[in-house]
Amino acid sequence: MTLAYSKLTAQGQISVPAEIRKKLGVGPGAVLEWDEEGGKIVVRRAGRYTSEDVHRALFPEGAPKPRSDVELREGVRQYGRGRHARR
Asked: Closest Cα to residue 32, out of 14, 54, 12?
């Protein structure tokens, strides 16, 4: 079922129909991302940062080594003790 239609201008521009803008939650200045998935072109609102960008910012030396629940709990305890000991 087709949601809406757009017409391509001679300059290669299209206008995004109001129904689609509403569904995407976009307005003037919004960035749309075009992707190919399974032989279809998909248009979506572009995220500000990709998950890869976030991962690289959090872990510049690569992914951290996996830790057990016990190791994680102990790390939280040590952090808490250190914060409260400084008072």
From this structure: 14
Closest residue by Cα to residue 27 from 5, 45, 14, 48? 45
Cα–Cα distance, 27 to 18 (Å, whole number): 10
pLDDT string in tens for the chain (87-residue length): 788 999 999 999 999 999 999 988 899 988 899 999 999 998 888 887 778 888 888 898 888 889 999 999 999 999 988 877 665
List residues bridging with 36 in a β-sheet.
41
| pTM summary value | 0.49
The tokens for 62 are 């690569």
Kindly report the backbone phi and psi dihedral angles of residue 32, in degrees, each rounded to the nearest multiple of 5, phi listed first.
-105, 145
